[in-house]
Predict the structure.
Amino acid sequence: MFVVSAPSGAGKTSLCTKLMERVAGLARSISFTTRPLRSVEEDGLDYHFITPEEFRERIIRGEMAEWAEVHGALYGTGLSALEKERSEGKDVLLAIDTQGAQRVKERFGQEVVTIFLFPPSMEILERRLREREADPEGEIRRRMAEAEREMRQWSHYDYVVVNDDFDEALEKLQAIILAERCRTSRLK
């Protein structure tokens, strides 16, 4: 299981999408969220968009592998889809925040490889958030403050990749996955 965490706007979703095209046997976990659907997103493809009530019910029923509140919305990974992919022998790729990564690591232990993705700089991160044109000014400021908090968590990860060049960052992510698959402790 591979976890990629990054501040909002660091390129996590774009890199994970491209990684799925390049690495065989990799299954992307589609997170659940209570945040509003953006105009460029599709329900069931980018996220499973559900109400806060539905989300809480899933937690109570034990259907979430991990969950966290991020930027005022709930995000989480469904347990059944995760278990299904793993039972089929696939490596699951989770693009989740630092809180979720910690919970996945606690729950699944050594089965999890964590990768923290850094933006090239805070200035570039802010520019990327603004170029999305998806969030109002207050939300951008909140995401920038959260980015600083998240980036302080980097030392809790197995690997760090700086996304200053998309193709180079993609190559590094792919190399990490391929190397981890060859680790003797993972061979069955």
